[in-house]
Amino acid sequence: MAVFDVERAADVIHDGLFAQQHRGQEGAGMVVSDGQRLQLHKGPGLVQEVFPGDRLVDLPGRLGIGHVRYSTCGGDRAQNIQPLLAECADGPWAIAHNGNLTNAAQLRRAYQQSGSIFHTTTDSEVLVHLLADPYYRSRIHRVGRALAELQGAFAFVLLTPDSILAARDPHGFKPLVLGTLGQGFVVASESCAFRPIGARYLRDIEPGELVTINRDGLASYQFAEPAAHGAQCVFELVYFARPDSLVFGHNVHQVRVRYGMRLAQEHPVEADVVIPIPDSGMSAAIGYSRASGIPLDMGFIRNHYIGRTFIMPEAGKRATGADRKLSVLPETVAGRRVVVVDDSIVRGNTARKRIALLRECGATEVHVRISCPPTRHPCFYGIDFATSEELLAAGRGVEEIRGSIGADSLGYLSEEGLLEPFGAGGPRFCRACFNGDYPVPVTDGRGKLALESGLTCESSARAAATRKGAS
Ligand code: SF4
């Protein structure tokens, strides 16, 4: 996120990052400008661990940027935590990035071959080199020219001593919203960051748009034409974003309720109770219950002291976290036919365990309903399921998946159902993880660890698969 011209920028960024903690748990950081110098503080862990209260007084200033890390490119080394801060010939720049660049390996190789040294193994660092490159430095619209070299998914915020900049790739994969705070401005991945800091949502940053904010005000220009067939990440609406956010102009909770209602029409079943997988299955379960008339109840209790397990970087931690996160309320499920509503099944192990647990607690039937189509293809744009081997649904039919997780019945939302809440004039979505139709070709760097030194693209994909295992 980024803020401009606000009292105690560090405190505001802290609160905004805290509200967006669900987007990344591995590291956090911020860079704040006092008008002349940029000061950085970052580290591994959650926002409150990296900024335990008093650290913020060391970061005076009225503008800055912040980031929470969910690694989808590059390992868990400390250098990869963002923002990245670099001293260029014309002064310092800081950048923070959400998404995955699909041509990062190619650009990185070219810069390395001409003598540049990289300090991280993230894709994001190539933008630093483009900004420092004399070719772009000398150009009008230098940042826009540099951004136009990038392919794939990106929402960037940048900081100089006296300005912030924000940009979104031409396909608009990742959300990025603009708001006002007093006389100042705020940019964030999700609008849920605005309420706690008292900011007001103004609009989305558009695909291909670069916004510059400095003491002269806000200026906007298109650094690239928006892609004819936009590709906003529908998985943000299905799972990733917080229900109280506006994503691509739509309230996430309301969209998920509609998904649940449509799911009930597409896959009705006779049952006694609908139970959500908390938290992300909650809204769709409300919709399923509303449309089916089957009462909604709490069947799983979530331990809120365990973070979001889907975005944990290692298979072992994910599996242990998922085991500990939910426990069953036998009083809800014993002797009853249960409909379990979840947002997605990615790797499948947790679904299998939860169904077994429901049966142990006395459920007589377990019917699983998923508020998106089967996840059959990897994502190369910023969600960490990078190999087909990780995906339960890859190469399997619904009946085979049902047998594998041990459910009495299984129903997925159709692709038509996924688009229904938006109508004909609605956003254009990327659905590649469901249908394999990739809006931006992926030519290199196909693994999360593709830029780790000594690894080729092919071996890095294998390394990523081995490291993650099944979860
Ligand atoms: S492949 Fe799936 S998760 Fe990745 S950007 Fe597209 S819709 Fe989102």
Helix content: 25-40%
Sheet with most strands: strand arrangement: 3-2-4-1-10-9-11
CATH class of the largest domain: Alpha Beta
Tell me the strand percentage band: 15-25%
The geometry reads as: globular
How does the major sheet shape up?
7 strands, antiparallel
Overall tally of domains: 2
**Low-confidence regions:** 454-471
Structural class determined from secondary elements? alpha+beta
Note the gap between the termini.
31 Å
SS field, number of helical segments: 17
Describe the structure.
- Helices cover 29% and strands 23% of the residues.
- By secondary structure, it is of the alpha+beta class.
- A seven-stranded antiparallel β-sheet has the order 3-2-4-1-10-9-11.
- The relative contact order is 0.11.
- It has two domains: 2-99 and 146-229, Aminohydrolase, N-terminal nucleophile (Ntn) domain (Glutamine Phosphoribosylpyrophosphate, subunit 1, domain 1); 236-438, 3-Layer(aba) Sandwich (Rossmann fold).
- It contains 17 helices and 23 strands.
- Iron/sulfur cluster binds next to helix 8 and helix 16.
- Iron/sulfur cluster binds at residues 173, 233-235, 379, 381, 383, 430-433.
Topology, element by element:
Blueprint: E1 2-4, H1 9-19, E2 27-33, E3 38-44, H2 47-50, E4 63-69, E5 84-88, E6 91-98, H3 104-113, H4 125-132, H5 134-137, H6 142-147, E7 155-160, E8 163-168, E9 177-181, E10 184-188, H7 194-197, E11 200-204, E12 209-214, E13 217-222, E14 232-233, H8 234-240, E15 246-247, E16 250-251, H9 252-266, E17 273-276, H10 282-292, E18 300-302, H11 315-325, E19 326-328, H12 330-333, E20 337-342, H13 349-360, E21 365-370, H14 398-405, E22 409-412, H15 415-419, E23 429-430, H16 432-435, H17 457-468
Parallel strand pairs: 14-23, 17-20, 20-21, 21-22
Antiparallel strand pairs: 1-4, 1-10, 2-3, 2-4, 5-6, 6-7, 7-8, 8-12, 9-10, 9-11, 12-13, 15-16, 18-19
Bound molecules: iron/sulfur cluster (SF4).
